[in-house]
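User: I'm writing a tutorial on reading structure tokens. Could you give me a worked example: one chain, its sequence, then its tokens, then a sentence or two explaining what the tokens reveal?
Assistant: Sure. Here is the example chain.
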Amino acid sequence: MAVRRVNRCILRDELWWDSEFSCGSCGTCLCEHAGPGRAPDDVREALFAAHGPVRLRLVDPVPSLVPAQAEIGEFLVGNGIPVTAR
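And here are its predicted structure tokens:
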């Protein structure tokens, strides 16, 4: 049976995604794609289904949250990750 796995990671200060297939019956593995940039909707939907929403927290105190929020928001939106304010 073929299994598809999708992943997101930070590599070389960029947000990467990959998609790979493996077959438990014959042992075949192949990489559909690996690289930086916006992940296709089907990859994003699979990741959301597997992991659900996430919440980012700053671990070190900062003098103002505005620059940190702007930087995080720009990074997320630039990588096609939906951002909602709470």
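What the tokens reveal: The chain has two helices and three strands. The chain has one domain: 2-78.
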